[in-house]
Structure formats: structure tokens, C-alpha cells
Amino acid sequence: MELQKRYGLPTAICMVVGIVIGSGVFFKAEAVLNATGGNMPLGIAAWLIVGAIMMICSYVFATLATRYERVSGLVDYAEVTMGQGYAYAMGWFAASVYVPGLVSVLAWVSARYLCVLLGWDITGGSCMVIACFFLCADYAVNALSPRIAGKFQVTTTVAKMVPLVLMAVVGTVMGLANGQLHENFTAAASSAVDTGTGLMASVVAVAFAYEGWILATSINAELKDAKRNLPRALVIGACIVVATYLFYYIGLGGAVTTEELMASGEAAAKMAFQRTFGPVAGTLVFVLIVISCLGTLNGLMLACCRASYALGARNWGPRPDVFEQVDPATNMPANSATMALLYSAFWLLFFYGANLAEPRWFGAFGFDSAELPIVTLYAMYIPIFVQMMRKEKELNAFKRFLMPALGVLSCLFMVYAAFAAHGVRVLYYLLMFAVFMIVGLLFRGRRQ
């Protein structure tokens, strides 16, 4: 069986907006300020830089989406530009590391915000139990009823825009009226933080908040009129995300001081909403934030469930005859979805041991699975953009040369930012990355 064309343009746009907007904008706001020593203009610069990179890369892939429609967008574009070997490597990385790594972090973030809402301990085992429950529940929804998962994605995307727009508008107006916004913008940065290093660390942190948009291409085979609707979704979604993030961040600075944001962690968003809208209304809005995180988790799981299928449908990777199967009752690649759950559970365990457990389980190899795999994907975009400039001769100069060239420069900047922010830890991560890729190549070689 083949996957049915069941999704329209609204679902595709909500995939882009819903996957990207959700947790990072709440989760990383204080990380950006801590990295810049409380320098709010420098933090805004980080949001703008990564937003511009997202818009450039999404435009380049939108151009490819107007020309190619196969099984799964990202793997399709890698195949037509770089060939099957590179496409397999990218598909394997996405299925085994990148997407399940994001899914696991989102399950944990959703659980943490629920604990903040309920006043529970966010560092104890109960938070991880809730994260496991969210992971399994979202897998069940996507594996058993993809239509419900699609509707849930649209609903949560609309719901998550409410608190963001409210804070952007009301927080900005309130901050201008009481002088809080001016104070935050003019406050001196901590002398202990180097401006260049702080900006690079902020860029890498913000990358998590912007990441996931490329996964909207995973529903390429299930999207009606994909060559027309997918490019529209990528471009429109990217514009919505950048505008929302920028104005929310400014509105947040109008509600609380930079010192409070830096010190409060996950509770900073709750404090800002309660101070702006009152205790009751602020709590209700914070409920929407939890729903927002779950919506992001759903979008990522929606893509994750199809990742192994994208390889199996091409007769690539371990047991393609198993992962290419589509359940006749649900019209979902059930085996691929089950594998996605196993990958995600592994990365949730890794994230806990590397970042939360005391003492840390993996020592120097305990990298942040919410950031470094994202930068790896940007590095893997570079050959695709270069080959696009060489092969796509039917495109005009703007689409064929200028935008892909800007994409290459953007990706190189992200790689530099990762080394500047994480230093030698990047090398330990690359060793683990190499191990995963070698395992994937062994599976492919043994099958052939």
C-alpha cells in the first residue's frame, strides 16, 4: 500500500509553525540572556540571525519542493542533488539521531512545564515519568490515528499562538508605558561575558528554538498538490515563526527584568504571564504553553514515525521489507512508527544521563542532544546547496545561485557557532556521530 494524500495546505503550514514554535521560545529565552550576560539587544540579534538563516534555507528547500515530489522531502532533495549514498546517510541520521533526539527533548520539556504549572519538583523522577508517558501517548495517537494527529497539530498550533501574541502585544505596550522595556534594553551587560562568545552561544541555543521546520517535508507523500503547497508552507511558516519569536521576546522584556529572566529558568514565562495578565489569567495562559509544547511534540513525532519508512520505501537500510509496510487499517507505516518510539526512548534516556543525572553518566561524551545534532544537519545541507547550484540549470540566477550561496554561508556560520559555543565537546559528539553513521553504513552494505 501507499500513503494517502490526506493533508492540505493548512496542515502543512501548521507543521512548520507547530513544530518550530512550542517549547524553544519559552525554554531558551533565559539561556540566551545568560549567554549574553543580560544584554537584551545582543539576544535579539541572535534571534534575528538564526531567523534569517531559517528563512534562507527554507526558501532554498521550497525551490526544490516545486520540482521534486517523492516519498520524504529531505531525503528526496538529498537524492536528486547528491545521489543515493548521501541521501541514505542523511535519512539514516534523521531517523536514528536527529528527529528522535528532538522528540525526546520535547517530551522532557513538556513534562517540565507541566510540573511548573502544577508546582511539582522539576528535577525529580516524577518529571521523567511524565516525559515517558507523553512520549508513549503521542506515539499511540500518531501510529493509530494519523488524521487525529493532523487535526491535533492544527488545533495546538492555533492554541499556542494565543499566549505568544498576547505577550508580544500586551507585554510590549506595558513595557513601553512603565519604562521596563527601556531599562532592559539599556542595562549594561555582565563584564564577565565576552560579546563574541556570548553571541555564538546564543545562536546555538536559539537554533533549538527555530529547529524542526525541515520535518514538514516528511509529509510530502501525503500532501495534496505537494509541489504547490509544500513550498508555500515552508515560506509562509518561516515568516510567521520569525515574526512571532521576535515580538514575543521583546514583549517578554516589557513584563519582567532581565535579571528575573536569567534567574527563574522555566518559571520565568509563568512569572511574566501572571504579572502581565494577573494570577488567574496568567495561569490559564500558561496552560496554553503546556499545550503548545505538546503540539510541538506531536509534530515531531508525526515526522519521526515516517523516518524509517522513507528509507524502507526506497529499499534502503536494515530490513526495508519491514519498514516499508503500511498498515491497511490506519494507512500508517506501523513498523516505522514503532522504531521511532524505540529511538526516541533511547535518546530520552541519553538526555537524562548526559544532562540531568548526578553524577553525569557519560562524562565528556554527554553532549546536549537538543543542540549539536541540529548543527550537524546544517552542515549536511551544504553539499546539497552546492550541487543545486551546479545541477539546477533551469532555475533563474536568483534561485540557482544567490539563495543557495547564502544558504551555504548560513550553514557555515552555524557550524562555526557550534564550535565557538561548545568547544572541544563538539569533537566528542562527532565521535558518537561517526559511530552511528558507520552502523548505518554497515546495515546498508550488508543488505547489498
From TrEMBL:
<keyword id="KW-1133">Transmembrane helix</keyword>
<feature type="transmembrane region" description="Helical">
    <location>
        <begin position="332"/>
        <end position="352"/>
    </location>
</feature>
<dbReference type="InterPro" id="IPR050598">
    <property type="entry name" value="AminoAcid_Transporter"/>
</dbReference>
<feature type="transmembrane region" description="Helical">
    <location>
        <begin position="284"/>
        <end position="311"/>
    </location>
</feature>
<keyword id="KW-0472">Membrane</keyword>
<feature type="transmembrane region" description="Helical">
    <location>
        <begin position="401"/>
        <end position="420"/>
    </location>
</feature>
<feature type="transmembrane region" description="Helical">
    <location>
        <begin position="42"/>
        <end position="65"/>
    </location>
</feature>
<dbReference type="GO" id="GO:0015179">
    <property type="term" value="F:L-amino acid transmembrane transporter activity"/>
</dbReference>
<feature type="transmembrane region" description="Helical">
    <location>
        <begin position="233"/>
        <end position="252"/>
    </location>
</feature>
<dbReference type="GO" id="GO:0016020">
    <property type="term" value="C:membrane"/>
</dbReference>
<feature type="transmembrane region" description="Helical">
    <location>
        <begin position="372"/>
        <end position="389"/>
    </location>
</feature>
<keyword id="KW-0812">Transmembrane</keyword>
<feature type="transmembrane region" description="Helical">
    <location>
        <begin position="199"/>
        <end position="221"/>
    </location>
</feature>
<feature type="transmembrane region" description="Helical">
    <location>
        <begin position="117"/>
        <end position="141"/>
    </location>
</feature>
<feature type="transmembrane region" description="Helical">
    <location>
        <begin position="161"/>
        <end position="179"/>
    </location>
</feature>
<feature type="transmembrane region" description="Helical">
    <location>
        <begin position="7"/>
        <end position="27"/>
    </location>
</feature>
<feature type="transmembrane region" description="Helical">
    <location>
        <begin position="426"/>
        <end position="443"/>
    </location>
</feature>
<protein>
    <submittedName>
        <fullName>APC family permease</fullName>
    </submittedName>
</protein>
<dbReference type="InterPro" id="IPR002293">
    <property type="entry name" value="AA/rel_permease1"/>
</dbReference>
<feature type="transmembrane region" description="Helical">
    <location>
        <begin position="86"/>
        <end position="111"/>
    </location>
</feature>
<dbReference type="Pfam" id="PF13520">
    <property type="entry name" value="AA_permease_2"/>
</dbReference>
